[in-house]
Write a structure and sequence with these properties.
The chain is α/β, with parallel strands linked by helices. It contains 10 helices and 13 strands.
Amino acid sequence: MTHRVFIDGEVGTTGLQICQRLAARTDLVVASLSEERRKDPAARAEMINSVDAVILCLPDEASREAVSMIQNDQVRVIDASTAFRTAPGWTYGFPEMSSAQRQAVATSKRVSNPGCFPTGFIALVRPLIEAGLVPADWPVTVSAVSGYSGGGKPMIAEFEDETSDSYTSEPYRIYATGLEHKHVPEMQLHTGLTGKPLFAPSVGRYAQGMIVEVPLQLWAMPTLPQVSQLHEVLSLAYAGSRFVEVASRAEAASIKTLNPEGLNGTNRLKLFVFGNEAAGQARLVALLDNLGKGASGAAVQNLNLMLGLDEGEGLI
C-alpha cells in the first residue's frame, strides 16, 4: 500500500529536510501544491483532507489554522511547531520517552513533534526522575548550544548572507536572557518536574548539530545518587533502542571533548554521563542533530509509526 503525505511548509528548513528524507521512498507519495496554490486556503484545505498524513512545518498560528481546516477524521497529523506540544488530545512525538510512548504515537492521529532542545533534555532527565534519583522538585539547570539552522531561514541569513542587513560575524552568542523560552513548558511537563528548569540556550557559528547538558551537584541531592547509578538507569531506559544510545562509562571517561556536529545527518541521539564520584558531581550530555532527531528525522520516525511502517525506514 502506498500512502499519500502532504508537507505543509515544505520550503522551510524542517520541511526541506523531511522532503529529502522521503525522496527515495517507494512506499510513500509526497503530494505537493504549486507555489501559487500554497497561498490559497481552499487549495490547502482540499489537500490536507485528501491525504493519509500531513506534516505541518509552519509557525504556531499557521499550524493551528491548518488543523482547524481538517474535516476528514482519518487524516493523521504531525505538527512540527510549538503549538500543540503540551496540548490535551495531542501525543508527544518522542517514541523513546517511555515504554508506552511508541504505541501511543503509532495509534494517534494527532502527534506533536518535540523541540530539538527538549529532546535531549527529556531523554536525560525523565528516566532519572522516574527512578527517584533526581527529585521532581529539584532546581534543574540545562545549558545547550545549537547550530544556527535551529533559528530557521532568518537566522540562517544572519550567519550566511553577507548582503543581509542582519548579517553577523559573531562566533557564538547566548539568548533567552529574560529566562523565557517556548521550549520550557514541554521540558517541564514531559520530564515530570514540578518547577521550571532554568534553560540557558546558545547558538554557535556552524549550521547544524547540538549539545544539551544538565549539570548535577549529586552531593546536594537528598537521594545522594552515584554517577554509576545515573548511568545504569539511563542505559536500562534505552536498552535496545534503535536511535537512542547511551555511551559506556569507559567511552565517556576517554572523551576529552565533544563535537556538536558529531551526529549530523542522522536520526540518532547519544547520551553521555560524565562524572566524578569523589566530588559528587555529574554532567549529563545529549548529542544530536537539531535538524535530525531534533526535527525532521523525528517527524519521519513518527510518520512511519503512525502509518504502520518500519520505524526506521528512510532514516540512519
